[in-house]
Amino acid sequence: MKIKAVKSVADAKNVIVLAEKKTDVKFLPCDKVMPFMKENFDKEEIQMVKTPKHYMYVVNVKNADLEQIRKFAHKIHTEVKNEEEIAVHGANDEKILAFLEGIYLSDYQFLKYFTDKDNKKNKLKSVLVAGILQPKIKEMKNVIESTLWARTLVNEPVSYLDAERLAMEIRKKRVDDGLKIKTLHKKDIEELQMGGLLAVNKGSEIPPTFTIMEWKPKNAKNKKPYVLVGKGVVYDTGGLSLKPTPHSMDLMKSDMGGAAMMAATMDAVAKNKLPIHIIALIPSTDNRPGKTAYAPGDVITMFDGTTVEVLNTDAEGRMILADAIAYANRYKPELIIDAATLTGAAVRAIGTKAAIVMGNAPQKYIKQLEKSGNKTHERVVQFPFWDEWMDELKSDIADMKNIGSSNAGMITAGKFLEHFAKYPYIHIDIAGPAFLEAPEDYKGKGGTGFGVRLLYDFFKSL
User: Fold this and answer.
1) What percent of the chain has pLDDT above 90?
2) pLDDT, tens only, 104-142
3) CA end-to-end span of the chain, whole Å?
4) CATH code linked to domain 142-461
């Protein structure tokens, strides 16, 4: 979809006015409009008026917050998605951008595997916008396109997107904008002795990958890099600790939502040339109960030398993340942030409306994540991170075990990962909002691309 800033949309056929007062439609040359506004402006949030030249939607945004405006955009998108062109007029840049986000996100479709995809495809091709400069539109568009890429990665089945293909899709992003990308393959991973990643991969016929992305512009404002780590389990059966049926494995193609989030965040940061030095690490494999699969009771030696007693092979995400977090210490980072669809406990705690965040990093970082989450409506809720939870991870035969008790599983998972981070650390559990089983406004159904807009705003604010 093309989005273009123009001086006026008065001559467009389908006009959407983000109005804060009754006179905001004066630019439209029609005698019907002002009387309509005077009589109806305060009656409803969205109204449609037909003039000889226009189908006009008037959106009352006077008291609306940014999330309400995104949802207004979704409602209007259902009406205009088969029009080739629409036009938007407004006086407030922030509200215009929120509306454009809602339109663009609502227009996303994953039609790759439909034989009649041409008939199902939305017809909307162009959005004209008055009242805002093109650079702001370009920045927003880059972030949304990265978000939609993350959605597509999550929506792809493992029959297409295995660990090697995920690395390949990420590498495609390296050419034009200076984003450096390197993929380590099984031999490299064995040489590094990443025991967690190799253990989870033992039941698979597809080798693991470890992808390193780096954006380091000359004008970077941070002397020490920020390092992102994303869980890339492209499909999770639970391994020998097989997930129970029914329905427990149906959505497990989405278990690489953290990898998609971090890779797409890097894509957005690089395309918009944010002046920060940032690195992303993506460990990837599937988790299957193959003939040589790792088993409950095994002791695994991790990348940093820590020994871990495996009591549940379905707690695999933390095993591959731990190796990547330990690897992140090599960069002596300012901050390590991981994201993962890590625990069912997180979903049971707060559902799909937000992610859980915890960590030992200075509170200024977590507070900024909360602020960015409220702005983008990709909200995070901070959970406690007390050291007492480490007691649940004590093993009788190794340094640690890979699960705690049946209580507070999202926190013991975070504490397990914290052990491997030697620098300030934040853990984000996105198990709830990363994938939706039913359509929800502009978020749609399936992969949501959660976290890309959140982290982009976070880093831009820093």
Assistant:
1) 88
2) 999 999 999 999 999 999 999 999 999 899 999 999 999
3) 30
4) 3.40.630.10
What values do phi and psi take at 214, rounded to 5?
-140, 130
The residues, any chain, with a CB within 8 Å of residue 228's CB and separated by 6 or more, are 262, 265, 266, 278, 279, 280, 281, 337, 338, 339, 455
Distance of alpha carbon 418 from alpha carbon 424, whole angstroms: 9
For the chain, the average pLDDT equals 95
Q: Which residue's structure tokens are 């983008």? A: 376
Of 25, 13, 86, 8, nearest in space to 53 by CA: 13
What is the set of active-site residues?
243, 318
Per domain, the residue ranges of the chain are 2-129, 142-461
Where does residue 193 fall: left (phi above 0), alpha (psi -120 to 50 degrees), or beta otherwise? left
Q: Residue 85 corresponds to which tokens in the numbers above?
A: 């062109």
Determine whether domain 2-129 maps to CATH 3.40.1190.10.
no
Please give the angle made by the CA atoms of 360, 448 and 431, to the nearest 5 degrees. 45
